[in-house]
Amino acid sequence: MALMRLLLTTALAAPASAALAANADSIWFGGPIITVNDKAPSAEAVAVKAGKIVAVGSKAAVLKAEKGAATQLIDLQGRTMIPGFVDAHGHISGVGIQAVSANLLPPPDGPGQSIADIQRIMRDFIATSPAVKAGGLAIGFNYDDSQLAEHRAPTRQELDAVSTTIPIMLTHQSGHLGAYNSKALELAGITADTPDPSGGVIQREADGRTPNGVMEENAHGLVAYKLLPKFTPAQALAMVEAAQKVYMANGYTTVQDGKTDAMSMGMLVGAAKAGKLKIDVVSYADLVTLKDNPILRGPLMSDGYADHFRIGGVKLTFDGSPQGKTAWFTKHYLQVPAGQKPDYAGYPAFPKPGEAQGWVDMAYRNNWQLLIHANGDAAIDQMIATTAAAQKQFPGADRRTVMIHGQYLRADQIPKLQALEIFPALFPMHTFYWGDWHRQSVAGPERANFISPTGAVLNSGMKFSIHHDAPVTFPNSMRVWDSAVNRTTRTGYVLGPDQRLSPMVALKAMTIWPAFQHFEEKSKGSIEVGKVADLVILDKNPLTIPPATIKDVKVVETIKDGRSVYAVGR
Question: From 457's CA, which of 24, 73, 256, 380 has a CA 20 to 30 Å away?
Fold first, then answer.
């Protein structure tokens, strides 16, 4: 057990059962308790009964009101308690697949610093991984061309040097691109005669026809779906459980699965029915692929959880990745990708007239909460226009449409989001992982300083959330917190100092505000009487330590519904 629990229960005989039932199951005290409740921002003690918070306040008052013969009294021993983190945007199903894939991440999260590194990692993975033997596919996760020595993706020939008999699929850290060997292209039916799909690009060799192995956006998705093996129920459960452990170790008590496809939906529903979920998982279904699936009109599309799972709504993707240079801008990239014209500014996921509007209208017509991935400012313009039209056609409901990422949100677009009540789910972790790349290659210093403009959105009076987008990055809660407070790049440059948040505001953007985003602010996100006992214990108080050390704070214990689901050393 992570904390040395001081069980101070009395040796006296228990009172009558009716009186005993009125007492708390457990009371925490002995360290800072940050409630994230503006009316009472701190407390000395918290009491929990049957998974709910029943008292918050001074130690003396809580003990007097709630301590009984069977109450477990837990001394925090100076450690800090906060509400459980609410995952504003991520993909727990993707983290599950990542768990059975080769790690291609660059430092500090992995060893992938060059194409030679990737070749070595994949050779070792093919030689040792049971997943390759079972599925017949070698998956490498999260190469990052911005951090590779060559500043480009591996070609099919370079992956053929690893294997010509086993298909190899590498996913870009953004999740929006992939690199494949010749065997994988052959199995997916990709040839020189294959046209680019709508909203996607098949990168070509010098002849302008032969695929070079790199697939962008919808082309990547098309190939990946063809190649991914059908996991057995046992394999699917194991992947979900492995992913869940990562989230719990980082203090997340509510987790999102954004843009859930049919395979991932089956994994998550199966895990819930098997009783394997220990924390809440809210899914946002891939509207384009699941539009006719009965599950979107079934009981799982609900405000309430069944076995810790529910479908909260649907998701659309309007553009791609700024670090992968597929996000859709109104101005050209600072350094355009090889083979592109000087005015290249990315491209939309829905290029056909009226296509994006039709999908947004479908979500509004069905009164489904809608998440829209929009990174570039042109994609955000499209999101604003289509949402405004849908709200005019289908007025009245509180839908809380969410802008996912909003990396290149312009200042003039913020009032438009506010007028349409579009909730911004922002991604300031980019300031660390790709901040230097944004400045030097993607958009230049002026535009890069305003990426994920949390300060400007806060000054407008809007609520917002911040996220990790796992498996794009690890669901490292302290790195999320740190990036929003410090906005420090890999080289130590502060990117957009006027967009930095105070530690308290960043905590709200990881707890009570994403709870609001999910329509769960009445039951989660703060330590208040009547809310579920979703709690996290940290080894230090992030509100009082030097801001630069927030990234080093450790999660000691994660408590879901009053039960410890993760503890250091257990």
Answer: 256
